[in-house]
Amino acid sequence: MKLTINEVAQCLHLPLSTVDRWIRQGRIPIQRSGNDYIFNESALEKWAESYNLMFSLPQKVKAQQQEARLENLLPAMKRGGLYHDLKGDNVEAVLGAAIENLHVLSNSSKEKLFEKLLERENLTSTGIGKGVAIPHPHDPMSDALENPLIATCFLEKPIDFGAVDDKPVFIMFILLSQSIKIHLHLLSRLSFCVRDNSFVEFLKTSPDSAAFFSKVADFEKQLDRADNY
Amino acid sequence: MRILKSWRYPASWNIFRLDDRLLLILMAAIVGNCSGLAAVILNRSLVAMFEWLHHLRHYWWVFVLPAVGAALSSLFLDKIVKEGAGHGVPEVIYSVSRYGGLLRFRSSFSRLISSCLTIGSGGSAGPEAPVVISGASIGSNIAKFFSLNDRQRVTLVGCGAAGAISSIFNAPIAGMVFAIEVIIGEWKSVNIVPIAIASVAGTEVSRILQGNQIAFSHRLFSIDLIDIIACLGLAILTAAASILLTRMLRSMHEISGRISAPVWLRAAAGGCAVGIIGIFLPVVLGEGYHSVRIMIEGAFSQGLVIVALAALAKIVATSLTLGSGGSGGIFAPCLVIGSLLGLTYHHSLVLLWPSVSWVNEGCFALLGMAGLISGMLQAPLTGIFLIVEITGGYEVILPLIIVSAISTTLCHYIEPASYYLKDLVELGHLLRPGTDARVLSDLNVPEILERDCITVNQNMLLRDFINIVKKSHRNYFPVENEETGDFMGIIHLDDIRPYLFNPIMYDAVVLGQIMDTKVEVVHPDDDLSEVLRRMDANRLFSMPVVINNRFIGLISKATLLDQYRKELMVQTSH
User: Fold this and answer.
1) Which tens digits make up the pLDDT trace of A59-99?
2) pTM above 0.90?
3) Which pLDDT score is estimated for B86?
4) Do the Cβ atoms of A21 and B442 come within 8 Å?
5) Is B12 within 8 Å of A31 when comparing Cβ atoms?
6) pLDDT single digits (tens) B254-273
7) Domain A73-228: homologous superfamily in CATH
8) What pLDDT score was predicted for residue B202?
9) Which CATH class is domain A5-67?
10) How far is it, in rounded angstroms, from Cα B208 to Cα A221?
11) Neighboring chain B residues of A30 at a CB cutoff of 8 Å
12) Of A5, A194, B52, B183, most Cβ neighbours within 10 A?
């Protein structure tokens, strides 16, 4: 593969002007004839190694950037699904019932998840107020999942969740993600929606999945607008 | 056809592409030959000039001859080639460290002609510095012709200097050591090999054209322990003389700079004074190789007082010639002064302890030369090798090393910068490879500029600003005027941190109120060492770069350190 001089500068993580100056000063094994740059890529890599300089191809950098791009709520919610009338009288029972519905997970990871969620609830309640809870494991589930998911569970009857405002919880969003970064990103977007009273009122009507997803899509648009201001 | 076209780009030939050592050796041979030739030409024309003017020596008005020569030489430099007077070695050193050894083509002959006029007419100066500049300029222009890069060009400049010194003294090692120790200042095999080749080429040219003669041959000296002990005193004497000469040269230069006469008139006045001294002590005139030869042979028959006076007179004459605008170097005068001092010292020793059997006075003359050269250049190796080679006297190497080392150390103690480097050090222009000053001078502001700053305007509300803060990776936000786009000030995240979580402030504060308008700004052409000094003085970590009231980017110490380290690694390893 042939690199351009710009890509060489990127590989070395240097500004182009520095590379240009090094060529002029004869510090780097690149020759210039007219507008052309003559160099041997492997020799250049060896040279960078001998001077302890970093030399990595820009493709890898791009791949890393792609990984870093974060997903929005909607795809995660669609992946997690919407469940109505979850039965149970206490936290343990509703969480168990909710996990039963998550078909993406294998049985062994379901058990593990159940333990982790309870562990997290024992630490402090995930009931964030206004009758909403966002149960999630303390550590990200990096091995069981490929993509983040949010399972939206409407409870049959509100239960005591030990929430911050002591209101009984009527809806749970179970948030599972494979890294802390994604977790924080989704949690921040989710709490933006829940903070809005109209959204909570809407949730109380126990909407069907089509209405729910379109409402979430509306809120995400608002969020993006605020972000891009 | 392609071969014909590419002959000027030897760096792209296949055999030279991977490693330029072979290429440099080839080029060094060419440069060494050319600069050796230049040195021979100057030497021959000086001899011719001396013979041509010899019959005028009987007239009473002979003292105006140096004046005419100096005036012509300074007129030539000032009006025709438009170059500065003096010896010019600092210019070469500066060009090597700052401009990758770029020198003007006309430098390759201008100093040859002007120094020929000055010295040939009797001015007290040496032909070595002019040939060093010619050689260096030849090397630089050959490198330019073949489109070589800066590093290769610097090496060829060193080759030129080495070839010239080697040729004029018939002393290959001295040329090589001088080029590396004084001109390039970096002992690396990539430099040493081509410079050695150039020294060989330069010496060989001079041997073919002028014969292989040792400049100052002498009888065998037998040196005892007592002589070695005695040479300690000589070292102190030569160190004192070096400092005197350095100070005299500089103060004479300052005095003549203050006189508001045309340059040629100043030079003529200086030359006239030298001519008058020359009537009484003819030893001061010219480059003085002839008198050095006599002194080393031990045939200089004057008494103690005359010799001491002659040494002083030579110092004064050299300062007058060079300080007033004549053209030439200090090498040859140093040799003369050194040998006169050596004789003085020997005469005083004999006077004080007549019973001790001292070594021949020629030996002390020789040691004196080494002491003065080492003291003036503060380059002990150059002094040692030069004297060993031009006298062919390896048996004096022990006292020679002692005198050179002590003289250099004493001079360095009193004058930290040598005569060649003093001006450069004072202007902050001495940028030896691998030093902090050099790394900072190679880097420049645009190379460490960070452009990924988000600019805001002065009418923006704090609420909108907080949304921008969310997305930014940086702590600094430049404020630009909404209409004109002019840079107004900067907001540091620390300034608003206390209000970040107070929503009442969000709509009550606009950025124009909280920005810092008294910021230190940087111009892209600013010197990085100066920028760093300002950062340290004001305890800043970042500074905005502004041209014509427009914000361009930010420079920060963190990025600077990153680049500085890479630059240092590339400059110093190997």
Assistant:
1) 655 555 545 567 778 888 888 888 888 888 888 888 888 88
2) no
3) 60
4) yes
5) yes
6) 888 788 778 788 888 888 88
7) Mannitol-specific EII; Chain A (3.40.930.10)
8) 93
9) mainly alpha
10) 89
11) none
12) B183
Which domains are seen in chain B, by residue range?
A: 2-210 (1.10.3080.10), 225-427 (1.10.3080.10), 440-572 (3.10.580.10)
A184 chain-B contacts, CB cut-off 8 A: none
Tokens read off for B252: 């004479």
Residue A160 to chain B, least CA–CA distance (Å): 32
Total Cβ atoms within 10 A of residue B246: 22
User: DSSP H helical segments within B221-360, as ranges?
Assistant: 225-258, 263-280, 289-297, 304-323, 331-352
User: CB–CB of B495/B524 below 8 Å?
Assistant: no
Q: How much of chain B, in percent, has pLDDT values that exceed 70?
A: 96
Q: Which two tokens stand for residue B301?
A: 């028959």
Instruction: Report the alpha-carbon distance of residue B169 to residue B180 in Å, rounded.
Output: 17
Round to whole Å and give the CA distance between B190 and B19.
Answer: 11
B457 burial level (CB within 10 Å; 0-12, 13-18, 19+): middle
State the burial class of residue B432 (Cβ atoms within 10 Å of its Cβ: 0-12, 13-18, 19+): middle
CA distance B238 to B232: 10
How far is it, in rounded angstroms, from Cα A127 to Cα A170?
A: 10
* 3-class SS of residue A175: strand
Q: Is B301 helix (H, G, I), strand (E, B) or coil?
A: coil
Q: At what angle do helices A197-204 and A209-228 cross, to 10 degrees?
A: 170
Other beta carbons less than 10 A from residue B11's beta carbon: 21
Share above pLDDT 90 across residues of chain B, in percent, rounded to a whole number: 18
CB contact under 8 A, B573 and A50: yes
Contacts of A195 in chain B (CB under 8 A): none
The domain segmentation of chain A, as residue ranges, is 5-67, 73-228
ipTM surpasses 0.85: no
Q: Phi, psi at residue B20, to the nearest 5°?
A: -90, 5
Cβ–Cβ pairs < 8 A, chains A and B: 63
Are residues B376 and B419 in contact, defined by beta-carbon separation less than 8 angstroms? yes
Q: List b or e across B491-518, with b for residues whose CB sees 16 or more CB atoms inside 10 angstroms.
A: bbeeebeebeeeeebeeebbbbebbeee
Among all residues of chain B, which has the CA nearest to that of A27? Answer: B570
Q: Is residue B566 less than 8 Å (CB to CB) from chain A?
A: yes
Inter-CA distances, A84 with A154, A198, A208, B147, Å: 5, 20, 9, 79
Q: Which residues of A touch B561 (CB under 8 A)?
A: none
Token digits of residue B191: 């430099």
The Cβ of residue B354 has, within 10 Å, a number of other Cβ atoms equal to 9
B447 reaches A (C-beta below 8 A): yes
DSSP state of A155: E
Note whether B144 contacts A: Cβ–Cβ < 8 A.
no
B240-257 pLDDT, tens digit per residue, is 999 999 999 888 888 887
Least Cα separation, residue A18 to chain B (angstroms): 6
Assigned token pair, B132? 């060093």
